[in-house]
Design brief:
This protein has helices at about 25-40, 65-80, 100-105, 120-135, 150-160, 170-175, 190-205, 220-230, 245-255, 270-285; strands spanning about 55-60, 85-90, 110-115, 140, 175-180, 210-215, 235-240, 260. It has about 300 residues and is α/β, with parallel strands linked by helices.
């Protein structure tokens, strides 16, 4: 797999929505990153510095095998961007390793738990902090990934890959709209975070973006599509606001009257955002329930 070039800003849009390609530059940057990382583990007196706290990526878990494959690819991207950083995976449910088992394997070491979740909700506020508190490891819990501009750029690029193009004129703009399809939660803070992402995406695209949900909240994706259509917007795309393929993303895509983007997946910006949340937690020493994620 070709590593992402950490010296290139993958979050910025490219002409036509396509990322620049440069396998040679990517491999060279990756090699330099590894060399720099290894040098950073050695003190001036030649002694080896202790390894940084482990990054534990906390996934929800899914019965769809594509989800686990996607997360493993994402882990590889993180390791390519930050050689020397111990990176582990733990699931809340459905897949192994489960988070308590991953934390148990760390013993009394240091770790930062980064939720592979896009908004606040029960898992972020309860499940993950409780697992961290019960572990022997010295843990910090980062905030959820969203809202964040890197997510918006990833959504934009996934839409472009699916066939989205900017409206050519005012008439086409008035006929266009996007449904931001998210998992859904009964926690009102989750809806706040999703609406904020929808607002940022609307600014990015220049057309209305309506948040909608696969479960536990309203409107549903079909309801949001109908609402946009009733307003005369017949060029409606569905933006898949899911971290990986699964039942919810498949059902939401099926409701698209025009195009539906792929989930966020192992996009290079996702790996960079996960490391950003790790660095934030290291800098602020998060010990309580994470507040609204910031850029």
């Amino acid at each position: 797999m070709t590593a992402s070039n950490p010296l290139r800003d993958e979050s910025k849009p490219r002409p036509g929505g396509q990322p620049l390609r440069g396998a040679h530059l990517d491999s060279t940057a990756q090699l330099m990153n590894r060399i720099t990382s290894q040098l950073g583990l050695v003190s001036l007196d030649g002694t080896r510095r202790p390894a940084p706290p482990a990054l534990v990526l906390v996934g929800h878990g899914s019965r769809d095998p594509r989800a686990l494959s996607t997360i493993r690819t994402l882990l590889d991207r993180i390791r390519d961007l930050r050689p020397g950083l111990p990176v582990h995976l733990g699931h809340i449910e459905l897949n192994e390793p489960l988070l308590p088992d991953t934390l148990a394997d760390l013993g009394t070491g240091d770790a930062v738990l980064v939720p592979l979740l896009l908004s606040r909700g029960y898992h972020v506020k309860q499940d993950i902090p409780e697992a961290a508190a019960a572990a022997r490891a010295n843990t910090r819990v980062a905030g959820p990934l969203g809202p964040h501009p890197l997510l918006v750029e990833t959504l934009y690029e996934r839409l472009t890959e699916a066939g989205w193009r900017a409206p050519r004129d005012e008439a086409e703009r008035r006929a266009s709209g996007v449904v931001l399809a998210a998992a859904g939660s009964r926690d009102p803070d989750a809806a706040v975070d999703t609406r904020r992402t929808a607002g940022l995406l609307a600014e990015r695209l220049g057309v209305p973006v309506v948040p909608a949900y696969a479960s536990a909240a309203t409107p549903t994706v079909p309801e949001a599509v109908r609402a946009l259509t009733a307003r005369g917007r017949h060029r409606v795309a569905v933006a898949s606001y899911f971290t990986a393929p699964g039942r919810f993303s498949t059902e939401c895509a099926a409701a698209a009257p025009w195009i539906a983007s792929a989930p966020l997946g192992a996009h290079p910006s996702m790996a960079r955002l996960i490391l950003h949340r790790y660095d934030q937690a290291m800098a602020t020493a998060i010990t309580e329930t994470p507040a609204l994620a910031s850029a």
